[in-house]
Amino acid sequence: MTDSSFIAVDAMGGDKGLAVMLAGVARARHRFPDMRFLLVGDETAIREGLQSHPNLTANSEIVHAPEVVGSSEKAGVALRRAKKTSMGIAIDMVKQGRAGAAVSSGNTGALMAMAKLSLRMLPGIDRPALAAMLPTLGDNDVVVLDLGANTECDARNLIQFAVMGAAYARTNMDLASPRVALLNIGSEDQKGTDEIRDAAAALREATHLPLTFTGFIEGDRLSRGEVDVIVCDGFSGNIALKTAEGTARFVADLLKRAFRSSIRSKIGFLISKPATELLRHHLDPNIHNGAVFLGLNGIVVKSHGGATELGVATAIAAAAKMVRDDLTRRISEDLGNFEAKVA
Amino acid sequence: MTDSSFIAVDAMGGDKGLAVMLAGVARARHRFPDMRFLLVGDETAIREGLQSHPNLTANSEIVHAPEVVGSSEKAGVALRRAKKTSMGIAIDMVKQGRAGAAVSSGNTGALMAMAKLSLRMLPGIDRPALAAMLPTLGDNDVVVLDLGANTECDARNLIQFAVMGAAYARTNMDLASPRVALLNIGSEDQKGTDEIRDAAAALREATHLPLTFTGFIEGDRLSRGEVDVIVCDGFSGNIALKTAEGTARFVADLLKRAFRSSIRSKIGFLISKPATELLRHHLDPNIHNGAVFLGLNGIVVKSHGGATELGVATAIAAAAKMVRDDLTRRISEDLGNFEAKVA
């Protein structure tokens, strides 16, 4: 039996260090007072760090890990010493049933490799996919997957991602039949690669699934709020996600420059500060932090390497919600239905 | 001998119709008073349209074309009636040497297919690539290619794109040795597909080329102004370009919303209007309009389907500059040097 009241946190991963991880956990605890934490990492350092968070001490246990995965360490190298690292041990807590989810801000490739090897795939899934929620102009965020776990994907992978992404959207956004689209370079049927066209053909047929397949979507419509799930291979997804992040920052930088261009603009900026703060809030990646590896026997959440205290808390909150919603079981059920119908 | 004082314009292509195309040509003529135009399309309609542009009449000739390529027509279908369409005849003007370049706002796939079949590839080039200049935070724009002409590319294609993109950057931005990067999902050597890693290995060796290969670049750094040329397959390039466009619009829409959120914000907006206008100007796609198919025996410029009068003028100005700079010859020379050294 999994103890779903615990979340295992890789306390050592991430660019900002232990102090930010612990501050993020403490912040998450305020939102989920019943949630308890397994803090995985160097015992002495964590014990020392906890002195700044007396409230956290009662709600957490320390699990010692002597080693840390490097931020640019190759996945294969990290994998060989998984059992000694804070990342590997955090995942192992999920495998052992001591935690409902693991959260790490460390190296994505290593996290994926360790999670896959330790937790294994759900029946019917060939590969896990990294999924995240992105902001839109609509009422809901949009689930995008895969964001980089799989550089190349065949039609079967894409179809599985569609089913998993839809299950995630149903669970996370309470949608009965999420609108699912495939990312492509045009909206016409003949556009794109064979893999994408084959996946589209299969999804068009799969009317028994709890999702509404809407066809192809292009990169310029990702944030329009027209669909709930966008499916792509990990290469395109990573390019799209990072281009969106970079462009948002680019526009914000241009805006800053423009506001500094004259005294008049500076005054206008000061007066409209609440408006630009609203924008900043909406675009803050820390408010949308927490990508999840879908398709595994357990929940593993990837927090951004540069996540702040708020970002870490958001990722933990996302993990807590997935545990509470029993996401893994929901995905399994949808997959079972899909396999049963196509078999 | 090519008459490089003429530009052939597909007067019928584009979502906004003949009137906008002609207004764009007239606007371009103001910038290049020596430039003359072959206006290709329905003779009666063009003659009628020219009544609004008396100054243009003296600088242009009408070339009648009875048919128009549809905006969602399949390339194969359009190709069969190329010789009757305004797009096909505009390209044929370049082939016949009656114009130095062709410009069309029509269907990209058809334009690419017709240009390739009619003009043929430069020696040493397997496939053309669609290249455009994107705005950055740096002093220069950045050349990005391929933007959608080739859904899948091997290492050899990517290397050729790098050489062609660098020649374009040298010509267009007067750079001696443009900084060239490959778009990838990480900056470490082992990241990405085999094609990208193989292309990187070859470009690292190619120190005799007039370019500086800087390695991999991720989607979040496209607009930072750190490189002059970004090379990718047409699928990723299209996703990146459109995601950047969509995100810029998304942020602008959020900003508009934010400014409308209170009286105070509205006042701030009015005061800082010069600043936001500056931003709008910088992001206006019509100011960056005009993608070019590199690798052909001749210059073919693709103007955005929704280009305004300003956009059309920008695309024509870009074509005029390429003709003046003798871009095709410059690319041929660089390719010759590259082939000579690797052979």
TrEMBL record, chains A, B:
Its main location: cytoplasm. Pathway: Lipid metabolism; phospholipid metabolism. One of its GO terms (cellular component) is cytoplasm. GO terms for biological process: fatty acid biosynthetic process; phospholipid biosynthetic process. The keyword Isomerase does not apply. Catalyzes the reversible formation of acyl-phosphate (acyl-PO(4)) from acyl-[acyl-carrier-protein] (acyl-ACP). This enzyme utilizes acyl-ACP as fatty acyl donor, but not acyl-CoA. This is Phosphate acyltransferase.
